[in-house]
Amino acid sequence: MIINQASLDAALPRSAASRELMAQGYTILRGAAPAELIAGISEDLGPRFEATPFCEGGFYGARTKRFGRLLIRSPLMADLVMNAAILGLAERALGNWCDRIQLNLAQAIELHPGALAQFPHRDQDMWQGALGEVEYLINVMWPLTRFTEENGATIIWPDSHGVEALVDEPKCDPLVAEAEPGDAIVFLGSTLHGAGENRSASVRRGIIVSYCLGWLKPYENQWLAYPPEIARGFPQDVAALAGYAQHRPNLGNFEGQCPSVLFDGYPDGPLAAIDALRSDQAALLAEHVAGQTVRDERARAA
Questions:
Q1: pLDDT tens digits along 101-123
Q2: In 10 A of CB 13, how many CB atoms?
Q3: Going from the N-terminus, what domains does the chain have, and what CATH number goes with each?
Q4: Can you tell me the distance from the alpha carbon of 52 to that of 66, in angstroms, rounded to the nearest whole number?
Q5: CA distance 211 to 105
Q6: How far is 100 from 32, CA to CA, in rounded Å?
Q7: Tens of pLDDT along 247-275?
Q8: For residue 274, which of 260, 257, 253 has the smallest C-alpha distance?
Q9: Nearest by Cα to 65 from 44, 43, 40, 47
Q10: Strand runs labelled E in 10-158
């Protein structure tokens, strides 16, 4: 089933796209991003594609080029990363397991003629957590050139996600996710997938943007990819997605404060640590502190 972007409404987490993603492990949004946005990003990334050497190793692919840090490679990438429809799907898939989501990676990929089919894999295998119930990430493949069976379009195994990821053999045959620039191929981290073989005479270019639980170590080290002196120039929501926000309670802090404090430079003196708690934790803490305060006041009165 293919979902057209025009059919998506404000209730995206309850939409057909969301239901399809959770039911079969993938969905394709046609026209999810404006063609001019994708064309602009593709033009910006062109010189980097040309300069980047081929990968080494059987997984990345000897006839494949890859590079990250896309938020500094093109000023248009922020709009793609913050695509509202995609963020809605990410929140639906991951929101039960974290306080906030984070950017896992933004990577450009170019398959050259002769590239072999990638080893089928599940991206959740980066982390050794409980499998079968928790979803750790959501992937979005954005074609920069047309994706076809001949040039190595992404191969997806439907219904291979969730508890089915614990089964040795997928129950469904794979499909080729053919797509055009502007379409978004969305699949869960537990879904079996891989790049196809490029049997064509031209390169296949795309961008993989993924989002993961905010308490995980992301694939791409965001604080190294976008240090404070760079991230301070991002829109606030983009900077937060790239790691410059705490995951409550208090995870990812700098000297007990939100790491965005570094946007003003490294502090000259000590900082006061400030609680960053979930509302339920804050309520329990307030009760705990109030109980001790009352006790101390009674003791002084006696």
A1: 999 999 999 999 999 999 999 99
A2: 16
A3: 3-220 (2.60.120.620)
A4: 7
A5: 7
A6: 23
A7: 999 999 999 999 999 999 999 999 999 99
A8: 257
A9: 47
A10: 26-30, 64-67, 101-111, 137-143, 155-156
Report yes or no: 161 and 139 within 8 Å, Cβ to Cβ. no
H or E segment and range at residue 107: strand 101-111
**DSSP assignment letter at 145:** S
Pull the structure tokens for residue 291. 């109980």
Torsion of CA 265, 258, 90, 103, to 10 degrees: 30
Joined together, the tokens standing for residue 270 give: 């000590």
Residue 86, CA atoms < 13 Å, CB-side half-sphere: 33
Specify the residue for token string 């891989």. Answer: 194
Chain centroid to CA 262: how far? 24
Q: How many residues does the chain have?
A: 302
Tell me 16's DSSP state. H
Are 158 and 172 in contact, with CB atoms under 8 Å apart?
Answer: yes
